[in-house]
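Reopening this one. Same input as before:
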Amino acid sequence: MTTFSAADPVVILSYARTPMGGMQGVLSDISATDLGATAVKAAVERAGV
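Same output, byte for byte:
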């Protein structure tokens, strides 16, 4: 059995893209942080974590 410690790195082997938007387009009201969080959430779901 393998044990892990807090020093072990965490790696997610999945990705998700954020949509491309134009200047002052439909995505202009969404913060970069929210777009990034959406991409990370989707990547984690796809990875099955």
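So the earlier flakiness isn't reproducible anymore. For the record, The chain has a mean pLDDT of 83.
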